[in-house]
Amino acid sequence: MGIRATHTWSELIDALYKLRGVEIHSGIIDRLKFKLTEVSEKRIYIYRYISSNEGEYVDLTRSFHVVHDILNNTGKYTTYSDRVSRQYKHRRFVLAILRQCPLFIVTYNSKENTYEVRYSDDTTTDQHVEEKKRRVVAIVGAGAAIGLGPEGQQPSSHYLTEQLLKNTDDGKTNLLQKIKKTFPNKYKDNFEAYFHVVEQLASFYPDWKQKGSGEYIVQHPLSPFINPTKVFKLTDKQKSPNEVLKSMYMELMSLINVYNTYFEQEKNNALSWYTNFWKGPQNIIWDIFTFNYDTTIETSLQEYIDGYYSLSGDYQHFEPQKYIDDKKNSEKHTINHVHGCLLYSGEKPNFKVDREIQEVYSHNQFKWKDFQTNLDNITCRSLSAGRGQSGDLLVQDSIITGLHKTDKIVSQPFSFYRTQMDVQLIENDSLLIVGYSFNDYYVNNLLESLTLYHNNYRVAVIDFLVIEQLDSQKEYAIAEYFYNHKERAFMNHFFERLLQDDAQSNVWEGFDYSHVSEHYLTSKNGKVMFHIGGFKEAAKHKEQIYEFLTANK
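Given the sequence above, the corresponding structure tokens read:
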């Protein structure tokens, strides 16, 4: 069974630092046999096994000495952040070695902040102890894509809205420009609001066209009470709002594909920071729920489960049961496009023989081999559209946008991904949030429940804050950010729940500002890490993020 002992991190390093033969610090263990080869009094090697069953020796003495010096605030380190950064690095290295050594099994107790170490007394054991992989939920929003586009074409909400208004073909209507002039300022950079308005106009359009022609069936209950002439004159020779809507979808998808294609070209060069972040951690299995339409994460990971399986060379269909089985029987990452993807399409493929398959999968979104194939498929038909109980038109196709998302994610795979997001937040207490604006209410409600499901959660949030006084007035600058961004009230509310008693008066009071010069904060209760310099800047600290997210396991 071996011998068990409980150490703080400092005690653990002290014990290893003072190892000589079978002796250990403080006499905690009376008899302990190690597979050690003592080359000299100052150099100790611990034998470990690798997958090929061929042994190799790993020199731990240097690492132990350096970590010991860091913890005791000695050694030549220029700054506090340098000392902390090296501490993270060496802690991760030492634990990785210990977890792979048959003589140690190290378990972290986050409540007591101690390490329980089981020292084996069996010197004949050849079993290789693997570090257990941990599932971590990742919520990915539009902010994660900033920096992935070519120069001058970064996919920010402002840029996408600007290009959408500029390039959408709406005939002589100039409908989008009329909407822009009518909108209050805060909506002008929000392309989802434009989609919502055009969808609403399309919802009323059939009723308005029938007015004056005698009795007609009202398809939207509000249409008799609304006058369309303010922005939409039915007497003009113009495209219908449905046709304008289709042009908007085609344009938005094409804009997203620009940076998606650029990423394919630069994934191992200029954009390798993004690729390496997702495929980097050896002990993390991602369950990624992305609200973006690109395929950059799939390209980064290569191997993953998304529930799509091949029917032919051009397209795949969605099988939720196979997704569940594959997830149980493998350690693959999962990718869930909750709001659609450039490769999805609701159009039924042209089945010439197997009508049974057509019936079974007719309500699924199919996944095509590339964007151009999907685009060719979409442009030859009308967008799929139905009506909700309110009578509003619900466009439901490759991507889900606008302000009616909860009504639109009712078919596969969207409803399945939405359910999986809830399940994974219940089952896992580690959460990474990258570039999410906290503007989708149904997602916010799921996130708010995290503190109800778990006491010992870990949440890392990556955002980009423009703070001019960052270097001179750090704490004040962060406080001002939270105070001035009241339109993102839920984000503040979410942080208040995570920070608990430390943020009862003001959310910014719950943070430790020691690392703000490195563009991240940690919470006083140890449960939150907040990166404020954007995704690319945060990726420089990816090892610390991985360590933080898995420390509570």
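Confidence is low (pLDDT under 50) at residues 18-68, 75-81, 121-130. Try to locate this feature in the token string yourself.
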